[in-house]
Each structure stands twice: as structure tokens, then as C-alpha cells.
Design goal:
Elements (H helix, E strand, L loop, with lengths): L1 E6 L2 H15 L3 E6 L10 H7 L6 E2 L7 H19 L3 E5 L3 H12 L4 E4 L11 H12 L2 E4 L2 H9 L6 E3 L3 H16 L2 H4 L8 E4 L3 H4 L2 H12 L5 E4 L2 H10 L7 E4 L4 H10 L2 E4 L2 H10 L3 E3 L7 H5 L3 E3 L4 H10 L15 H10 L4
Parallel strand pairs: 1-2, 1-4, 2-3, 4-5, 5-6, 6-7, 8-9, 8-11, 9-10, 11-12, 12-13
Helix pairs in contact: 1-7, 1-16, 3-4, 4-5, 7-12, 10-15
The structure holds uridine-diphosphate-N-acetylglucosamine and uridine-5'-diphosphate (UDP).
The site of uridine-5'-diphosphate has 16 residues, from helix 1, helix 12 and helix 13.
């Protein structure tokens, strides 16, 4: 088969890595990078560390308003699809690249497979929620990481297109952790001791575009007794400048880190504080308790297991959780058996519309 794979933003490179390997054992993959993320530390470093092949096409779309960015991606993608005429288009996650890839392919009658399908935050103010819902409804095959995702799709009448396959980001961790431990010197570089620091990431639009919410998070981070490592997403860096906000206390703001450094930082932190979807899930998989700086999450099973707590952005609530949050002993496997990519390739091979 001829499979067109779409990536564009940081989490999609991680989501694509193992599946790309599995596809290429017996099929042709054409990799398209929309160019949504383009800084070295937001894109190239992931290709290097995850062994992702160089994209066959880079659409070079870059940053912009939602409508412009999504439309521009679709227009450029159409040309590629016309040239490649793939048997399948694969999109993953919930970014504008995901939606643009799915829409462009569906309109040209190319079957679409959505990896990490069925997730819902039930908050339609999130651009990602719109991307997820729209992508799931126009896709032909929906690969779900969890039973909760399957249940969401059942409620929307999409169960006949859905398959529970496990999580591709968990698979990436299983493959990469030993390499990260070998190659990352981030703890030494930042003079950090295992379990002697907190790790924070913030980039959700609802937090960065609202100066009061961002200020609340920063106030809580600055009040921590331990060092707080804070790799700053470019969106957040821009928001800090725009709103004249600074980092206080023991907060160490650094540029975004590569995937290997991030895995090591997540694994060794005493706590992770984040509004990222992928980081909540990785913290769970690596056995680090997570404080989520949002009011809801798509990764509900991490909360049900007692390893993730939804705290929002109130400084007192965050500080309380930093002091008191304790997960239970048990940490069941929630994200499959690490053979997700092989299962996806088999499903594509066996698909009969
Ligand atoms: C996007 C996704 C979000 C995902 C996140 C992962 C959408 C709607 N959002 O959000 O779901 O969680 O990626 O990180 O698709 N910028 C740079 N350099 C880059 C990339 C971005 O400086 O390489 C800056 C630009 O100022 C840009 C801003 O970051 O305007 C936001 O980038 P964008 O890709 O639009 O959205 P993210 O917030 O990154
Ligand atoms: N990540 C990284 N360096 C960072 C922050 C995140 O390598 O400085 C990785 C993280 O480990 C995960 C992915 O990027 O694999 C998650 O992306 P992000 O938080 O940007 O987006 P989300 O998951 O919220 O869509």
C-alpha cells in the first residue's frame, strides 16, 4: 500500500515515530510535514532522536490564525495528495495539521485513518476539541488508545469505525527510554537530583491567552520550595513578553527541550505540573504524579487511577496540590501492550469498506 502520513506539530512527531517504522516494514510511506512547528527544538530534534525519516514534503505553512493556517495546509496538501494518490491518509491527535490532513484527503475520496481517535474533553472552547470531533466524523478508521475513547465514539454513533489498539506515545516511550537514559545529561546540566525538583509545561491557548490564568500559574510555580524546571513553549514565551509577566522564586525557564531530555525530566521529577495532553500521559507511564493545570482532561483514566489531579489555575489550589497530592501504590497499565503500531498496520491491510 501507498500510505500518506501527515505530521506538523510536536506531539505528532512522537505519535508518528513507531508507526512509521511498522508501516515501512512492508508498505510505502510518504511523510508530509505541514510546517506547523518549525523551530529546531519544536521539530527537527524529534526527527533525529526518534529516527523519523526526512519528510518527503514540507508544506512550510508556519504560524497564523486558525482559519488561515488550516486552509493553507489543506490547499497545499491537495496538491500532494493529487501527486501521490495514496491508498490511505493517516492523521494523528488533534492539531490543525490533523484536521487539515483529514479534510483534504476525505474531499479527494482518499480513506482517512485517525490515530489517537475518540478523545474528548467536552470543552468546545478548545480548538483541539473541534479538531478531534471533526476529524473523527470524517475518518474511515478510528484507532483508539483507551476504552474511554471507544465509549466516546459509541456515544457519537462512530463505534463501527473504531478499534481499540493502545497508545502510540506509550509505544514511543517503551522504545526510547533506554536511549534517553544513555544519551541525556539534562539532570547533570541543570544540577538536578532525582525527585528533587518539579517539572512544569504550559501552552494551552486557554492558559497562555488569558493573562490572569497565566499569572495564577506563574504565582504558584514561584511559591514552590523546590526548583521548578519550566521548558517554555514558544507560544508561552510570546505570551509572557506580551503581558509583561516574569518567572519568580526557584523557577528555571529554559527553551523547549528535546524528547530524550523531556523523558528524563518527566521520569525524575517529584511532580509534573502541566496543561499538555501528552505530558499528562507520559507522566503516568513513567510513574510521576501529575497536577493538571486545567479544569478537564481527555486522559480521564490517569485521574481515575489516582495519579493525576485536575487543579485548574488557582494559585492556592496548585500550591495545595504541590504539597499534598499523593498517588496510590497501584499504577495499572492503561495504554496497551506496546504493539499498537503493528495492530494499526494490520487493520489498514485488512480494511474492507
Ligand atoms: C499546537 C496545537 C496544540 C498542541 C501544540 C503542541 C493546534 C490548534 N494546536 O499548539 O493542540 O498541543 O501545538 O505543542 O493545532 N511557534 C514558534 N515556533 C514554532 C511553532 C510555533 O515560535 O516552531 C509560535 C508562533 O508564535 C505561533 C505559536 O507558537 O503563533 C503557536 O503555534 P501553533 O502551532 O499555532 O499552536 P501551538 O500553541 O503550538
Ligand atoms: N515535549 C518535549 N519537550 C518539551 C515539551 C514537550 O519533548 O519541552 C514532548 C513531550 O514529551 C510529549 C510531546 O512533546 O511527547 C507533547 O507535546 P505538547 O505538550 O507540546 O503537546 P500536547 O501533547 O499537549 O498536544
Amino acid at each position: 500500500m501507498n500510505i500518506l502520513s501527515v505530521v506538523g506539530a510536536r506531539p505528532e512527531f512522537v505519535q508518528a515515530a513507531r508507526l512509521s517504522k511498522a508501516i515501512r516494514t512492508r508498505h510505502r510511506e510518504v511523510l508530509v510535514h505541514t510546517g506547523q512547528h518549525y523551530d529546531y527544538e519544536m521539530s527537527e530534534v524529534f526527527f533525529q532522536q526518534l529516527g523519523l525519516p526526512r519528510p518527503d514534503y514540507n508544506l512550510g505553512v508556519g504560524s497564523g490564525a486558525h482559519g488561515w493556517q488550516t486552509g493553507e495546509m489543506m490547499a497545499r496538501m491537495e496538491k500532494v495528495i493529487d501527486e501521490v494518490r495514496p491508498d490511505w491518509t493517516i492523521v494523528r491527535g488533534d492539531t490543525n495539521s490533523t484536521l487539515a490532513g483529514a479534510l483534504a484527503a476525505a474531499k479527494l475520496h482518499i480513506p482517512v485513518a485517525h490515530v489517537e481517535a475518540g478523545l474528548r474533553s467536552f470543552n468546545r472552547a478548545m480548538p483541539e476539541e473541534i479538531n478531534r470531533i471533526a476529524t473523527d466524523h470524517i475518518s474511515d478508521l478510528l484507532f483508539c488508545p483507551t476504552q474511554a475513547a471507544m465509549d466516546n465514539l459509541q456515544r457519537e454513533g462512530l463505534l463501527d469505525k473504531a478499534l481499540l489498539v493502545g497508545d502510540v506515545m506509550y509505544e514511543a516511550i517503551l522504545y526510547s527510554l533506554a536511549l534517553a537514559q544513555e544519551q541525556s545529561d539534562i539532570l547533570a546540566r541543570l544540577s538536578l537530583k532525582p525527585r528533587g525538583y518539579l517539572l512544569a509545561t504550559v501552552h494551552r491557548a486557554e492558559n497562555t491567552d488569558e493573562p490572569l490564568r497565566l499569572a495564577g500559574i506563574l504565582q504558584a510555580l514561584a511559591a514552590a520550595d523546590e526548583p521548578v524546571v519550566f521548558p517554555v513553549h514558544p507560544r508561552t514565551g510570546a505570551a509572557l513578553k506580551q503581558h509583561g509577566l516574569g518567572l519568580g522564586g526557584r523557577v528555571l525557564g529554559i527553551p523547549p527541550v528535546g524528547y530524550f531530555d523531556m523523558l528524563i525530566l518527566e521520569q525524575n521529577a517529584r511532580l509534573v505540573l502541566t496543561d499538555s495532553g501528552g505530558v499528562q500521559k507520559e507522566a503516568y507511564c513513567l510513574g510521576t504524579p501529575c497536577i493538571t493545570l486545567r479544569e478537564e482532561t481527555e486522559w480521564v483514566e490517569t485521574v481515575e487511577a489516582g495519579w493525576n489531579t485536575l487543579v485548574g489555575v488557582d494559585p492556592q489550589a496548585i500550591c495545595g496540590a504541590v504539597k499534598e497530592f499523593q498517588p496510590p501504590q497501584a499504577r495499572p497499565l492503561l495504554y496497551g501492550d506496546g504493539h499498537t503500531s503493528e495492530r494499526i498496520v494490520q487493520a489498514l491491510e485488512g480494511y474492507a469498506p
